[in-house]
Amino acid sequence: MSFQPLPDVTDDSAAFWQGGVDGVLRIHRCRQCSTWFHPPTPVCPECLSMDVGPEATSGRATVQGFSVNMQPWAPDMEVPYVVAVVSVTDAPGVQLTTRLVDVSPDAVTVGMLVEVIFQHVDDIYLPLFRPVIEPSEAS
Ligand SMILES: [Zn+2]
User: Fold this and answer.
1) Mean pLDDT, the chain, integer
2) Residue 124, domain member (yes or no)
3) Who wins on pLDDT, 51 or 8?
4) Separation of CA 43 and ligand 1 centre (Å)
5) To 10 degrees, the CA torsion angle through 78, 84, 113, 116?
6) Alpha carbon distances (Å) from 54 to 13, 45, 125
7) How far is the CA of 68 from the centre of ligand 1 (A)?
8) Which of 62, 70, 114, 124 has the least CB density, counted as fewest CB within 10 Å?
9) For residue 109, how far is its CA from the centre of ligand 1 (angstroms)?
């Protein structure tokens, strides 16, 4: 069994899984009540409107919680790796379970600002996140 089974891409979720084509993290939003929601569905969970669709976000998010995995579930997996729940900055209420990359597990903190980076696998783009390096911090 694969550690990271590829998701089924449906009409509703295509924008999410294939947003990496142009590097944009797209989250579903209701055009009636402006609620952002995930996973994408054809009906708004708030007001049951069907006037919903994917909207572009900045791709930035904040780490809400994380765990460090030491177990290589597949032969080609590098360990340790960090599984995190992040809240999408532009989409209040939306949290994604994802993997953090380009960061030492020791350096991950709750509240850390991260940005999306897409891993292209077959015909989908897995949204992973890496720390945002602000220009002011780099100097
Ligand atoms: Zn709604």
Assistant:
1) 89
2) yes
3) 51
4) 8
5) 70
6) 9, 14, 15
7) 36
8) 70
9) 33
Count: domains in the chain = 1
Asked, for residue 8, whether it belongs to a domain, the answer is no
Within-domain flag for 122: yes
DSSP letter (8 states) at residue 134: -
pTM for this predicted structure: 0.85
The per-residue pLDDT for 124 is 87
Q: Is residue 91 part of a domain?
A: yes
Domain around 72:
14-132
Residue 91 Cα to ligand 1 middle (Å): 14
* Per-residue pLDDT, 2: 39
**Do the Cβ atoms of 36 and 53 come closer than 8 Å?**
no
